[in-house]
Amino acid sequence: MDDDYSLSNQYVEYLKLIKDNWSSCHAAKVLSFELICYLEQRFLQLSAPLRVRILTSFLYIKESIRVNCCDKILKILELGETDSNEWVRKMSRLSRPYIKTGIMDLKETDTETAFRIINFLDDKQNNDGCEYAVKPGLEYVHICDISDTQVNHGDEYTLFMPRRNFDIIGAKIEKKALSCIH
Questions:
Q1: Which of 21, 26, 41, 73 sits most deeply, having the most CB atoms within 10 A of its CB?
Q2: By C-alpha distance, which of 90, 14, 11, 7 is closest to 48?
Q3: How far apart are CA 13 and CA 7, in angstroms?
Q4: Alpha helices for 61-141 (secondary structure H)
C-alpha cells in the first residue's frame, strides 16, 4: 500500500513538473521504470497538452531508463499514434526511432509538419510584415569566389614559430596583469 502511495506521489510530482514547464528535461529526471509502468495505464486519461509534454520528456530520459523501459515506452507511443490529437500523433511518430535506437532519425520526420510550419512562418512574415531571420541556403555558407579573394602573403603565417610566439603572448599577458595590479 505504501508503494502505491509513493508511486502516486511521484506521478503527481512528475505531472506538476510537466504542467509548469514546456521544457520537459526537469520532469524526465523523475522518471523510473515503475513510474513509466504507472504512466502507461493512465496516459489516455490525461489532456492532450500533457500527453505531448510527456512524449517530449521521453527525449530527455537517461540512456539506462530508455533501454530498460523501451517496451513500456513503445506501448505509450503506440497509444499516442492512434490519439485524436494531431500533435500527440506526430510526437509519438517522431519519438519512436529515438526510443528504439537512442538516435533521432531525420528520415522518420514528418515532412507534412515541416511544410506546414514553413508555410505558417511565410504567411506570418507576409501578413505581419515582421522579419524573421531568413538564413541563406547551404550553398552560400563558407563559399567564396576565389577570383575576388585578396590573398595576403604577409609574414604572419610563413614566419610563425609556435614556441616563440606563445612566449611573446605569455609575456604580454603577464605584463598587462602586473600593470593592472599596480
A1: 73
A2: 90
A3: 10
A4: 63-68, 70-81, 86-101, 111-128
Identify the residue whose cell numbers are 493512465: 42
Cα–Cα distance measured from residue 104 to residue 102, given in angstroms and rounded to the nearest whole number: 7
Range with the lowest mean pLDDT among 34-38, 92-96, 124-128, 164-168? 124-128
Q: Is the model's pLDDT at 77 over the cut of 90? A: yes
CB 94 within 8 A of CB 109: yes
Q: Which three cell numbers stand for residue 37?
A: 509502468
Of the candidates 5, 11, 1, the residue with the CA atom closest to the CA atom of residue 39? 11
pTM, entire model: 0.58
Question: Kind and range of the H or E element at 133?
Answer: none
Please give the Cα distance from 50 to 42 (Å, whole number). 11
d(C-alpha 180, C-alpha 108), whole Å: 57
